[in-house]
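Hey, can you fold this?
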Amino acid sequence: MFKSLLENISLLENIFEISIAVLLLCSFFSVRLLKKIRRERKLSSFENAMYFIIRIAIFLWLVSFLLIEFGAYLI
């Protein structure tokens, strides 16, 4: 029973990592689409807020990922 629980945790971790990758991919495409729309016309306030929030979220994820993965090398 304990072995199957550990296998399920590993599966859940893999699903979690895949979901992060999918969310990041969708975020990049959303930013690209909003950038394209921005060149064609002025963005609405909601679109503008979404554009900046997504860019900030991607940046914060990148910084936190680098600190988690390579933070031990900084100390």
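Oh, and this one too while you're at it.
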Amino acid sequence: MKRKTLLTATLLVALSLTSCKGKSEKAEAQSSQPSQPEVTGMTATLLKSAEKTRAEEEAALADVPEQAEPLFKTTERRGFKMGAVISYQSALKADYTNMIKSDFNSITASNEFKAYSLLNQNESMRAENGMPVMNYSQADTIAKFAQQNGIGIRGHVLVWDAYMPVWFFKEGYRNDSAFVDSATMKKRLEYYINEVVSHFETEFPGVVYCWDVVNEAVADGINECNEYDERRIRTLRSGTPNYFYEVIGPDYVELSFKYAREATARVNPNIKLFYNDYNTFYSPKREAIGKLIESINKEEKLCDGVGMQGYVGGYGQQDGCMNPNDIKLFADAIRFYGEKGLEVHVTELALRNYDQSQAKKHEDFYEDFFRMLADSNATNNYLTSVSIWGLTDNPTLPRSDYSYKMNGPYCGIYNYNLKKKAEFYRIIKAMQ
């Protein structure tokens, strides 16, 4: 059975224009005009546009399979969870949470689990033990939703230098004080990681199935790292110092995984630990990440896997989007990490598209990309979770908006009104 879509808002507007006539004018029309008068002008243009849009939508959905089960059930047979992004605000919206409950068995908080969201400066300044204090209210809202609906959480993220409040590294947690020494900062970091991991496992047992322990620690170029460091640990980010590196030292990544492993061992040894980054499928960053994980796991296996952020395509522009070679590079990278004994998660997937006229090409690219993901598990189940961050279209975003650049306004598998697009069904097709 072919799918039928509803009339678009444009069609409704057009129809309303044909009916907005006065009572006397209507009466006169009934007596002197044919029952179906010819529509001209702006109304005719709108109607034709709406008919074209409806026809395009129906054509896009004509050659895709019916959905017989939740999407996550379909991807499970190929070996991976199906995840989506969620925020505190979207967790309060029934239409969004219903969408999540219907088709996803994993969620990742956009910002609420990050240190800069959890840390409470005023309470930390008053803490008698000198350790940081957290406010979990927004994060707990997301965790409670997941717990009530049997959905797993990717904990994202324990340690990330970006947007990190500098007071966390200073004496008394004051903005204007001196930086603490390395030993003090190590104690703070260890305490923070243990407290956060323990909180979610104690309050929501078994819900957080993995943690991104460290995020984006590998520099893109040698101008932001020590040129002699084969791990390329970031010392700068767009000119801002990496205070974890500056205050703790160049081994802060390895220490973070050590602290995280000790924390999970106490509360739930089944929680997996991941290193997460972008551009993980491009050389030489791919190789640097490999070197970093070798360093983390040198004495014992502390890092279970790699989170491959899936921002694919030109950044903020159509040029470079939907390049078939990116699919090949992604497949090669999954194999590269998998052969090192690591699980692979695709953590922030956004197959970018900035041009609405390229919708058909985007649908094809989505299917090809997910077929590659399915095929990557044909012989070795390296890939165990895929999470989409470019989930919905948002054509109203200005070009200057961060989300416009990161995802693209036509990147989604849902329309802006959360209706499933052809891309959603193309995932199902790719799994067959």
